[in-house]
Amino acid sequence: MTENKAYLRAGSQILLVVAVGGFMADYLFNVGLSRLLPAHDYGDFKVAYAFATLSGTLVLLGGDRAAPRVLAGRFDIGDNRGIWEYFRFYCLLTLALSVLLIMGTLVASRLHLGPVDLYDHHPLAWTVFAVPLIAVGSLFGRILQSAKKLGMASLPWRIVFPLLKLSLITLAAQWVTGFNLEWVIVLALLSVAIIVIWQGWVILQLKLVRFVRAPDFLMPRQWLALSIPLMGGFLLALVLAQSDLYLLEMLGDEHEVGYFAAAATTAHFLMLIQGTVTSLVMPLIGPAIDADAATSRATFWQGQRLMLAILIPVTVVMGLAGKWIMAWFGADYVVAYPALCWLLIAYFVWAASSLSATWLHYSGHGKTAIIISAFALLADVILNILLIPRYGLTGAAIATAIAMAMAGIAMMLTQYLLSPSARKAHG
Length: 427
Fold this sequence. Notes:
mainly alpha
């Protein structure tokens, strides 16, 4: 446990840079983009980005989420022969599923809108080409994370990526005649490619992957049995977080999508904290579970204390300064402040329960976590349908707050009741 404390202490310093720097970089990108594009186009871009992120997870079948559980132990003993087997297996799956997804998206887009014309299609029909790149980049990041190279795993995507996108888009807006949403999409694709290539180069330089076969480590059935429930849980969580954008676009006023996207981007800082802390703890979870109940429990509470120590003050400060923060997007965006407050509640409870959800998946209770998330998504959709027509973007945020809070509490209670110590106490 002393080794874990040293690792978490050092990782917390990187965590601070990634969380704060990542939020500022992402916020700067979104504020800059909201000022370069009309609110409608900004909302369309956020919908398309959500689609690409969701699809990038789908085509991986959870291989990125399962990587720390499978690979961290190999790196701990200094045996990286099997890393290539894991990466190759999920890359082939990603390639095959990405081709099917791209073809299906383009066919659906053509059937809906007629001849293939870039200017006649919703941007998500073109962001689909980023899906395989996003998937490979996610695998690269998880390999670095499993090897406890936290800075190289997180900093490029959390900080460099949004700043690179903003720089390229700002230059194009200044120099390109007829700059529009299509240019934003192309430059975002280019930024993804640059980050993926760089991380691949780093992995090769650090010799984290050896291009040798390791048949004894090739266990596709076991990997899929772990990764598919993880994918299901993550997709449900992602859809739960993004469903308001889609439902608001269908059921609410068109201009409210952009305002809601700004509020969600602001509250997303809590999810950045959640993702960073979880990434810090994930390489420790598998070995802790494999050790004994006491080690597993101690490791969990180390991570949970770190999570709450950061989440609580950040949530309070963002709630108090919310109007001022929303005004960065423009004076008219302050209308989304009530939605921001509800989203802060939603994301706080959800983020606080994320380690419990990860423990459930890694300890063989992934189906239970998926059921909880599925009920939360169903509740969110029903509440959105009921609340958006009457309360608009604030109704969408209230729906998310109720659904996420209920699911987060259920996740934490379930993890406690299924833990070995709880079973022993009630046995």
